[in-house]
From TrEMBL:
Function: Component of the EKC/KEOPS complex that is required for the formation of a threonylcarbamoyl group on adenosine at position 37 (t(6)A37) in tRNAs that read codons beginning with adenine. The complex is probably involved in the transfer of the threonylcarbamoyl moiety of threonylcarbamoyl-AMP (TC-AMP) to the N6 group of A37. CGI121 acts as an allosteric effector that regulates the t(6)A activity of the complex. The EKC/KEOPS complex also promotes both telomere uncapping and telomere elongation. The complex is required for efficient recruitment of transcriptional coactivators.
UniProt similarity note: Belongs to the CGI121/TPRKB family.
Pfam families: CGI-121 (PF08617)
Name of the gene: CGI121
InterPro entries: CGI121/TPRKB, CGI121/TPRKB_sf
Residues of the signal peptide: none
Coarse class of the protein's main subcellular location: nucleus
Keywords (A to Z) from UniProt: Nucleus, tRNA processing
SUPFAM superfamilies: PF0523-like (SSF143870)
Gene Ontology process terms (BP): tRNA threonylcarbamoyladenosine modification
Domain of life from the UniProt record: Eukaryota
GO CC, any one term: cytosol
Subcellular location: Nucleus
Organism: Colletotrichum orbiculare (strain 104-T / ATCC 96160 / CBS 514.97 / LARS 414 / MAFF 240422)
Protein name listed in UniProt: EKC/KEOPS complex subunit CGI121
Amino acid sequence: MSIIETITIDHVPADHAVHVAFFKDVQNAAFLHSQLLARNPDFEYSLIDASVAVSRTHILAAAFKAVTAKVDGSLKTPNVHSELVASLSSANNIAEAYRRYGISPSSKDVIAVKVVGPSPSNFHSVEDVENHLKEHFQGNPVPFTDESIATSTDWAKVRKYYKLNGLAWLDAIKDEAGKPTIKDKHRNLHRKGLYHLAAPSSLLTTYPASHLFRFASS
């Protein structure tokens, strides 16, 4: 069974593919982080600390923005993968975005995203990407689902980074035992506009938040 999900994103050129893998209990985060710092082209991925992810849509909204910037020639970072990590931030401080949303030596759960395009230098087959991940990522692959992501989300970080503390509507969501309901929280974050942070303003004026991004898995 493949550890990768290949995702088609609406409004992104068909010659670009987004491959996503999710690893829990990663044992070699320090090594992976060092490869990014060294700008090793073999490790050109968006490596996201899953503790700051709240859903698939959260990550794929950032992927949409990054790929669009690449196609438009408006990247603010060295490549589409670093752009994706930076796009998770609501601020313009790129270095801070890397620290907050990207992998760190202490990361335990990691979402790896590989964007491939039409140019020969950027082409990697699904098999190439999967084999490289299996060889170099020491972790347990799990499905890239909202349910899997919810088990990694650190809501204290999410609240801090997105300035969500003190929002009554978020605090009020409880399950039957009186505890916060993760599924309802990320649904309401979507409805209230958290994912707008990663969306281009031109689309925000056209589509409501609940219909802005539609995804189909292949």
